[in-house]
Amino acid sequence: MDVVRAISNYQFRLDVGEKLFPDGTTIEVSKRTGKPKRIYLDGKLLATVRSNDGLIALTFEGAMKLRTLLPSGSFRVIVSDDAARFILKGKSLFSKHVLEADPKILPGDEVLIENSKGELLAVGKAVLSGCEMGKFRRGLAVKIRKVGGGALRES
């Protein structure tokens, strides 16, 4: 448990590990490597630990939980309404559709994608830095991995 909390504290550059993964969190460990693989809370998958770099990849459930723990604007990318409908279909986010992004985002960071109303749409992996997002008229900004639930999809 301490390892997963330490990874999240490192990855999100804040002391969020204990709140993101409280006591009662279940960690599935790889039989082959003995390293953390999947992280569950109350039977819901919150995150997986990426085998290539050992960092955390959040599910949408995990992103919603993290969102409540981070300061406003941290690790967030705000997208245009035009782009929101494509993101809800799992399409990648291109730079020209970014309205605002946390300038502290680095390529490879796990980011929360929100619409202009502040609703969480998806979670993905940044391809560009937060400073670059929205400034380029071409190019991929975020690879979308997990998309939000039904209520948002219908809007």
Secondary-structure map:
Blueprint: H1 2-11, H2 17-20, E1 26-29, E2 36-41, E3 44-49, E4 56-58, H3 60-69, E5 76-79, H4 81-87, E6 93-94, E7 98-101, E8 110-114, E9 120-126, E10 140-147, H5 150-154
Parallel strand pairs: 5-8
Antiparallel strand pairs: 1-2, 2-3, 3-4, 5-7, 6-10, 8-9, 9-10
Task: Describe what is shown at a glance.
This protein is of the alpha+beta class. It contains 5 helices and 10 strands, in the order H-H-E-E-E-E-H-E-H-E-E-E-E-E-H. A 6-stranded mixed β-sheet has the order 6-10-9-8-5-7. Strands 1-2-3-4 form a 4-stranded antiparallel β-sheet.
What does this structure look like?
The structure is a single chain. This protein starts with a helix and ends with a helix. It has a 6-stranded mixed beta sheet. It folds into 2 domains: 2-69, ArcTGT, C2 domain (Nuclear Transport Factor 2, Chain: A), CATH 3.10.450; 76-148, Roll (Archaeosine Trna-guanine Transglycosylase, Chain: A, domain 4). The chain contains 5 helices and 10 strands; from the N terminus they run ααββββαβαβββββα. The relative contact order is 0.15. It has 155 residues and is α+β, with helices and mostly antiparallel strands. A hairpin with a 5-residue loop joins strand 8 and strand 9 (120-126). The chain is elongated, with a radius of gyration of 15 Å. Residues 150-155 have low confidence and may be disordered.
User: What is the general shape?
Assistant: elongated
Question: Given the helix and strand composition, which structural class is it?
Answer: alpha+beta
Mean pLDDT metric:
93
Beta-strand content: 25-35%
Number of strands: 10
> CATH class of the largest domain, please?
Mainly Beta
CATH names the topology of the largest domain as Archaeosine Trna-guanine Transglycosylase, Chain: A, domain 4
Report how far apart the termini are: 38 Å
Q: What is the annotated CATH architecture of the largest domain?
A: Roll
Rg, rounded, reads: 15 Å
Q: List the secondary-structure elements in sequence, H or E.
A: HHEEEEHEHEEEEEH
Number of helices: 5
The H-level CATH homologous superfamily of the largest domain, spelled out, is PUA domain
- Unreliable stretches (pLDDT < 50, length at least 5) are 150-155
Strand order of the largest sheet: 6-10-9-8-5-7
Total tally of structural domains: 2
Helix content: 10-25%
Summarize the main sheet.
6 strands, mixed
